[in-house]
Amino acid sequence: MGKNGTYFLGKLLDRILITRTALYSYFCQLLTNMSTIVHIDCNAFFASCEIATRPQLQNTPVIVANSNEAGGGVILALNDKAKALGLKRGTPLFKIKHLLSQYAIQVCPADHKKYHRISRQIMQIVIQQGIILNFQQYSIDEFFGTLPIDDPSEIRIYIQMVKDAITTGSNIPVSCGCSSTYTLAKIATHYAKHYSGYKGICILTPDKRQQALSRLPVADVWGIGRSLQKKMASLNILTAWDFACLPLSRIQTDFGTQGLHTWQELHGVSSIKIHKNAQQQSIMQSHSFPYMLSSLPDLQKAVCNFAGNCSAKLRAQHSICRSITLFVNTNRHRKDLAQYSNTKKCKLTHYSNDTSLITKTSLELLRQIYRSGYQYKQAGLILSDIISDQGRQLDLFDQNDYAKKNQLMKTIDSINAKFGDDTIHLAVQDNSEKNTNTRLKEEE
Ligand SMILES: [Mg+2]
User: How far is the CA of 45 from the centre of ligand 1 (A)?
Assistant: First the structure.
């Protein structure tokens, strides 16, 4: 067979494979059940939380930034007004210092405790409303669930009710995407967020799939990681539709199981399972202090706060820990000052999530590593060796009344959830401006 013959035979085989892919897609659609996957994504979540809790910021450009040891920081989130000034996530604050006062941009220090509280609040609102089934948190600002219907006009009515409930209950704007798979629902949310015509709700039905995928860069598809992106770019696969059009026979060999699952999801076949937020394997809190601390009592107050917050996080994910690590650092950027840093780790006799025990142990660690005569800039606490609180092994000689302690901790957590963080805390914890707002002062 000549060169031309080989070429045409190749083309014919390609055509057969593409037809097979189309047939596969068609049958998959028939097999897809009647329920719709719903994806909810909070818009500019950290910035929205700051505005929700400080309504006076409503018409102001708002950015949320972290802080670092040197007193700098980068933009973590920003509202539309800040975006309109050309600001972008990840930009270091020192680069935009001149713009901050020029445009009266409000810089908020990241307050992760607040963001977690509002995220839990959104979960509760939706679960209580009972419209979305199997509602679960995927990340701090993203949620998935299902609706047992597939009529787009009905879906819109129900999702609008959910969206309204979230806005009324938490003041957080959200975008909602609905489709037959997780990946397509996330793509729908992308359109809901970026095209104002959707008014925050996009229902991606099979007839609109080609158009939606053709306009979406393949790199923006959930599950296409960096290595797949590189490979696709080299093969001139630029849009999600280019990828979806590849024949099934090529997918697994060229893009592996991950690529296959994404490809199937783009064809409307559920291939990904969402697991409830896995337990964090370590929980850490640290602070760079706005003023350097030299006295033991000042450091003790900070450490008590870390212990209280980390223990509450541990209980929120229904787990217990065995190891506690504490570290302290002086300011390494201040070469003119004496430098010291130390870390100490210890194992508890029993797994625990009891604030008083974790605080007592952390203070003992601090006593062991504290040296007078130094200016401390940073301290932190890490809880590790974490297991589920269902896995506690009872010891015959253990005198602790766990049931009583658990009940006390549960009561404290529920009061704090209802009336705000730190309504009840240990007397040794310090909740004064100086310690709780350290990051704010770092930014300023
Ligand atoms: Mg978001």
Answer: 6
Kindly give the distance from the C-alpha atom of residue 122 to the centroid of ligand 1, in angstroms, as a whole number. Answer: 13
* CA of residue 291 to ligand 1 center, whole Å: 33
CA atoms within 13 A on the CB side of 345: 8
Q: Give the pLDDT confidence score for residue 133 in this predicted structure.
A: 92
Is residue 274 within 8 A of residue 261, CB to CB? The reply is no
pTM: 0.63
Confidence of residue 205 (pLDDT cuts 50, 70, 90): very high
CA distance 221 to 140: 20
Query: Model confidence over 235-259: pLDDT tens digits?
Result: 999 999 999 999 998 898 888 888 9
| Cβ atoms of residues 408 and 339 within 8 Å | no
SS3 155: helix
Write the class of the CATH domain 283-440: alpha beta
Q: In angstroms, what is the span from residue 285 Cα to ligand 1's centroid?
A: 23
Selected from 3.30.70.270, 3.40.50.300, 3.40.190.10, 3.30.70.100, the CATH number assigned to the domain covering 33-42+115-266 reads: 3.30.70.270
Euclidean distance between CA atoms 420 and 339, whole angstroms: 38
Alpha-carbon distance 264 to 301, whole Å?
53
| Residue 224, helix vs strand vs coil | coil
Who's near 195: CB < 8 A, 6+ residues apart? 202
CB 39 within 8 A of CB 143: yes
Report CA(117)–ligand 1 centroid distance (Å). 16
| Backbone phi and psi for residue 400, each to the nearest 5 degrees, phi listed first | -70, 135
Distance CA 354, CA 327 (A): 21
Query: And the tokens for 291?
Result: 């003023």
Q: Which of 189, 261, 196, 194 is nearest to 223 (CA)?
A: 261
| Residues 143, 163 contacting (CB under 8 angstroms) | no
CA 88 to ligand 1 centroid distance, Å: 15
Mean pLDDT of 337-349: 93
Question: How far apart are alpha carbons 340 and 82 in whole angstroms?
Answer: 40
Place of tokens 């018409």: 59
How many other C-beta atoms can be found within 10 angstroms of the C-beta atom of residue 279? 14
Whole-angstrom Cα distance, residue 417 to residue 152?
37
Q: CATH classification of 47-110, choosing from 3.30.230.30, 3.40.50.150, 3.90.1200.10, 3.40.1170.60? A: 3.40.1170.60
